[in-house]
Amino acid sequence: MKTTSPASPATKITDSFINDIQTRIENNERVRRALPIWGRVHIDRSLPFLCVYRKVTDYESIGIERLVMGEASYITASGDRGLQKSLGLLVQSIARTQAASFGAFLILEIWELTEDEVHIDGPIYKPYFQIVRPAKTPLLSTIETFETELRKVRYRGHLADVDVVTAPRIRPLDLAPLISAAKASEFSCHVLGLKVRPIYRSHLADETFPLVRRSLNRRISKPLKQTFYEFMRGNTTGRPRHYTALGRRSVVKAVWEVDQALAEISNQFDFLLQVTPINSTAAWAGFKKNRFQKDPVLIYRRMPIDPIAAKRALFKVPIERIEDPVLAELFRSQQMELDRKLSMLADRGTFRFRYGSVQLYGVIGADLCDTARKILTQFPSNSEDENRKTFLDAASVAALATTELDRLRELLPGMKSVVEIHDDVSGLIVSNGNLLIGSRAKIPRSRVQALLQHEIGTHVLTYFNGRSQPFQQLYIGLSGYDELQEGLAVLAEYLVGGLNRNRLRLLAARVLASDFMLDGASFIDVYRELTESFAFNQATAFSISVRIFRGGGLTKDAVYLRGLIKLLEYLKNGGDHEILFMGKFDFDHIPLIRELLWRKVLKSGPLRPSYLANDESLTRLAHVRSGLSVDQLIKKG
After folding, report:
1. DSSP secondary structure letters along 375-416
2. Residue 481 CA, distance from chain mean position
3. How far is the CA of 632 from the CAs of 368, 454, 614, in angstroms?
4. How far is the C-alpha of 340 from the C-alpha of 356, rounded, in Å?
């Protein structure tokens, strides 16, 4: 094993450096300073623990330090022998200062296992850890928690093996301990070690696997926080409310730069507008003229970007610089989703477009199709449950929408959202926080309030709540956000008493039409299926077909019903309803959003739907929480 050469005296950590850090800790100020040779000390706030990684060998420059860099308090440092004495003094100063505030302190040092130390059965990518502890220690509960949580770490279907070993001195090979046992006992400082099997590189050290390292990084972060949480509860005066509250609160410059870069790319285009035809009325007239026998010609807006040039900029965004594994994962997912959308824009009008749609919105699924068929069977086309004789035109709807926006402005003065009537829009659509209404739109009076709460009470509201967050991605929309957004929007229709049978049939028909399209059905085939098998009128069947075939085949409309079903299950199981209005994100992001709230990185949004102040709406919400299926929403409506 090749070790680094001794350093010159100039690489020593100075007393003034140590004193400055001690002062900042005493004042509960953030510490983020580079160390000599290599490494950094990062202390987010006053906390009674410190993660340490010392790079002992040359080949360790592949990123193992990332295993500690996602934590709120860490040091990465060179293993250069000439640095170790002053590094020990720095760690001791931090430990002594923090222990004075909390009554105890924990140092957790992480380093790699050698191949000779791995004695387990299984493939080379099976995770394996050794927890190193002193022979005598009061941290038995902390160590038990650490072992239990590490055993939950999984990679490629294999759960980790974990051993707990004792050692007289806890340190990586060839390095001195950061603090002696005698010195540690003076101020209740405890030291544990974690040896990690380096499944992220080959044992010959000539090949690295960054995706494996990234995956392991995410999976280790949770056990670390749970261990620190258990240590604090049992050994210190600190009482964190939740283990996720021990994550990083400060956001470094790299995060803001990535967020801004991704937002700039995303804001260059409105994906939905770019794949929505601007000639729906003329296309319908032509379709009728051709006796419903010829596919309509759909015309789209001119592309405001070059998708390939946008992709070039997209993959220059340095997400790998983000230390926090939670934020890095969010931004990386966002980058991949933008890539898919740009590919779809490049493929607009071609058969390839629909393959990108499946990647973006997921497969339809047999269960969802079965639910859709059940709805269409249970509520036949002659089940009229609304008075369709009274319609409001675009101007009337715009006036009511403006009133609803004014209600939101009472909660968020200066909210810049407008209502616009457009000739090239069909129905209602939200774009960049503004409500666009088609000039030829005619909305049944009984459906107006439901549509306003769908578009404004959900899409506009979450847009501006997202804008109130520190990250722009929360208003742009995190990857896969459409399913939760549309489920929440349809639920809003129910909560204001506007989800009727015809609306539910429409959502079900969109699911089946999407499935038909993916199975190879043509526009004419889908149109005929809707009119002949499910008794939709010609105009409605045409509208559904256009929505499904726009761009080349868009399956977004299947997420309305799927999102509603998932949302009903979520609320039935006690899920928090109001957290869903914080911005635009997916069901899978809810635990991450909650964690970022605990860490005080995010905050509650200023806007709340107006219907949540209505007793009838709250009664309906209580019905949902008691457990309702989709068809029961109509019966309970």
Report:
1. HHHHS-TT---S-TT-EEEHHHHHHHHHHHHHHHHHHSTT--
2. 9
3. 16, 20, 21
4. 6
Please give the domain boundaries of the chain with CATH numbers for all domains. 9-246 (3.40.630), 270-304+347-636 (no CATH)
Number of C-beta neighbours around residue 539 at 10 A: 11
φ, ψ at 354 (rounded to 5°): -70, -25
Instruction: Name the token pair of 236.
Output: 């210190």
Q: Which two tokens stand for residue 77?
A: 């440092």
Q: What would the mean pLDDT of 456-484 be, rounded to a whole number?
A: 97
> Which CB contacts under 8 angstroms, 24+ apart, belong to 293-297?
293/524, 294/524, 295/522, 295/523, 295/524, 296/523, 296/542, 296/546
Average pLDDT over residues 575-603: 95
Other Cβ atoms less than 10 A from the Cβ of 49: the count is 28
3-class DSSP state of 76: strand
d(CA 444, CA 103): 67
Q: Report the alpha-carbon distance of residue 357 to residue 362 in Å, rounded.
A: 8
Task: DSSP for 253-286, please give it.
Answer: HHHHHHHHHHHHHHTT--HHHHTS-S-HHHHHHH
CA dihedral angle for residue 66, residue 70, residue 71, residue 76, rounded to 10 degrees = 30
What is the edge-to-edge ordering of all strands in the sheet holding 31-34?
31-34, 39-43, 73-78, 49-55, 105-112, 189-196, 128-133, 161-166
Q: Cα torsion at 458, 460, 466, 467 (round to 10°)?
A: -170
Length, in residues, of the chain: 637
Q: What are phi and psi of 564, to 5 degrees?
A: -65, -45
CB atoms within 10 A of CB 534: 21
- The residue type found at 287 is F
In 3-state terms, what secondary structure has residue 106? strand
What phi and psi values does residue 166 have, to the nearest 5 degrees? Answer: -105, 150
Structure tokens of 113?
Answer: 């296992």
Beta partners for residue 629, in sequence order: none
Look at residue 107 in the predicted model and tell me its pLDDT: 98
Q: What is the mean pLDDT of residues 166-195?
A: 95
Collect all residues with Cβ–Cβ distance below 8 Å to 553 and sequence separation of at least 6: 351, 353, 354, 357, 517, 518
pTM to 2 decimal places: 0.89
Q: Average pLDDT over the chain, rounded to whole?
A: 93
| Of 244, 231, 258, the residue nearest 70 (C-alpha) | 244
What residues pair up with 33 in beta bridges, in sequence order?
A: 41
Q: What's the rounded mean pLDDT across residues 79-93?
A: 95
